[in-house]
Amino acid sequence: MSSAKKRALVIGISDYENISPLVHPASDAEAIGKILSNLGFQVMRSINPDIDSLQDDIFAFLDSIKSKDCDTGLVYYSGHGIQVNGENFLIPKNMEQLDDERKIKRNTFALNEIFQGLEAASNKVNILILDACRDNPLSQGTKSIGGAKGLAGIGSAPNGSFIAYATSPGEVAFDGKKTDANGVYATELLRVLQMEGLTIEEAFKEVRMGVLKRTKDKQKPWDLSSLTGTYYFLPPSELGKEKKLMSEVEGNVEIIDVKNKVESIMVGFSDPGKIDDTFKEFLDFAKDFAQNSDLLKQAVELKRDYSFLEKDYRDKLIDSKEFRSERRDIFTKINEVLDEIRNGL
Q: Cα(276)–Cα(61) distance, rounded to whole angstroms?
């Protein structure tokens, strides 16, 4: 691994010997490892390790990313996790059903050691992905142990790090159906890692949206970042960059056009002789621009007010102070609606 700039360790533990086994973590780690390899990472795999192998694999990886040649380190873990007094631990396959805090700590791997190793490496980017938030492993089909649910929250990410949880701290994640190829979180992660041109923040937002949809809002992935630069798993191609730039330019032009349209409508409303034509223009504009807002409703109400005044106009003198006052009030309300549109751009 000495020459790779991007290095990853994927850990997946399904075959627990003394606590409830899990369906997907081993296959999740294999699948994530394959995708990362395709993305240019040199990948170390640790599948169903016991405590000795887990420690050896993690420490070997943390040593490897200290190399001057390495600028990105990534650890992916899928399996059982546990929090003890606010501290998180990863559970190897041979952990026994222990209820003594000291024994649990001796037979698990402290997540804090991974944090310290990533920070000591001083890489430009370090990424930690934890699909280890299942509930008490003594309960079938779930993934954490101890008095509290899920994994504990992290106060801050090590410098230059991005940390992703499969679900919010203190909550539990779902392993998924036995018939599924991968777990819920891993399925979405596999999909998003292959999407071109997403920053890491955009990528995990997409993962979060996918998981929320799959679980009907029951599982909400969470992340924490101390990155200061832009990072892509799959950088945009030159064509992709050009399309994105054109999209941004076109978007800015569209905003300018809309603002000009608003100004034109406001000028039209200021001329009583053009109010009928301007109102039709305003209604068409509101339908196109604000279909899902209250603006169209307000426009229709203003139209009704104006129609009433026009009907009543025949019975009033043109220079009636009362009529001019009512008409002026409507102009004021119309301009307020238009201001809402303009301020919303």
A: 73
**Which single residue is written with the structure tokens 């102070």?**
321
- What pTM was computed for the model? 0.66
List the alpha helices (DSSP H) in the chain.
25-38, 51-64, 101-106, 111-121, 184-193, 200-214, 238-269, 275-289, 295-313, 321-343
H/E segment holding residue 43: strand 42-47
What does the buried/exposed string (b/e) look like for 242-255 if buried means 16 or more CB atoms within 10 Å of the residue's CB? Answer: eeeeeeeeeeeeee
Domain ranges of the chain: 6-225, 238-343
Summarised one tens digit per residue, pLDDT across range 296-314 is: 566 666 666 655 555 555 4
Radius of gyration in angstroms for the set of CA atoms belonging to the chain, rounded to a whole number: 29
What is the predicted pLDDT for the residue at 102?
80
The CATH fold of domain 6-225: Rossmann fold (3.40.50)
- Find all residues with CB under 8 Å of 193, minimum gap 6, and list them: 32, 35, 36, 39, 203, 233, 234
